[in-house]
């Protein structure tokens, strides 16, 4: 059974002959809110984020069902095309049009803050947020009794996280410095900076201008690092060494029970990684980290499979409005919900969306289902890079094969 699922995930061929839906006519309205969520624009460079779904012209007709849940090659081709459009539009020097309509840095920050503070966003975010349980500090208990109390609290915490994940596909965990030691977090941060310097130096030697949109050198995929968007790197290099392979990280006493509850006791760590979003990075296209296990016509409508893989974000620095919080479509791990939400975002209609962009503190955690639709947003900080440690866990039979290449950067 395991091998069949693996093969289906690798091939994932679509059946039938569905015609792509015609994209809606371009909107003539513009607002800070619609710009943040990629409303179709009459002018190709109306906003930096308009390119997350490309132009609304006929050459980019989209069938949300096919593009989100089609075969891997089709999905990857579309994603690469939109990333390229995104990098081109983000480089103002390469855009021969009226750039006065581009949002300013402060306008982007203000729009993000307004959305985060809206009642709807606060309600959705709070509904998927949970605090790490604290050690009982009340008097009258000896060490053994306190450990027993903590075990009970972790068990309840695990049940709550499991329930939230299965329903929403996203869980925000507030650590309050209880999940990973604060001093150890500083060690992780320092080591990530050293890796950043080493990788960036090597990429420049290879001629990759990942901070500008000068040419196709912004798009690359090595075994150790891959570009995810203009100014955004996904790094696996040295992530299997200390301090990243320390038990506080990969076998955390709060996170590991949640992973096993969702994926089984035999869940495996696929790999750890480091995402760097540099100042001036572009908005990512909305995407999922992996493809569906089954084609649409192979799976009953209204049925949902349990998770087969998870990603866990652990910020190595505070995530503020200016550095670009990652946005998630809550509930989009469910196929029908994903199709519905993506159609609404594509047309600029956000009324029914459940999008959040949590501001995380250093040492917090965010767990999301591998199928959840999400995107990193533009880093508009003047000099601050956003480092994000992540851990990918999966069921033992799953093989991740699409996010990194085979060629080494260090030949």
Helix vs. strand class? alpha+beta
Strand portion = 5-15%
Number of DSSP-assigned strands:
11
Instruction: Report the sheet with the most strands, covering strand number, pairing sense and barrel closure.
Output: 8 strands, mixed
The overall pLDDT, averaged over residues, is 78
Give, in spatial order, the strands making up the sheet with the most strands.
Answer: 1-2-9-6-11-5-4-3
**Which overall shape is indicated by the principal axes computed on the Cα atoms?**
globular
Give a description of the structure.
With 411 residues, this protein is of the alpha+beta class. The chain is 33% helix and 13% strand. It contains eleven helices and eleven strands. A hairpin with a 2-residue loop joins β3 (225-229) and β4. The radius of gyration is 21 Å and the shape is globular. The model is unreliable at 1-76 and 81-100 (pLDDT under 50).
Output the keywords.
eight-stranded mixed β-sheet; alpha+beta; 33% helix; 411 residues; 13% strand; disordered N terminus; three-stranded antiparallel β-sheet; globular
Concise overview:
By secondary structure, the chain is α+β, with helices and mostly antiparallel strands. The chain has helices at 2-11, 32-36, 64-69, 72-90, 105-117, 119-127, 143-168, 182-205, 247-250, 255-263, 335-346, and strands spanning 129-131, 170-174, 225-229, 232-235, 268-277, 309-315, 327-329, 355-356, 365-369, 374-375, 386-394.
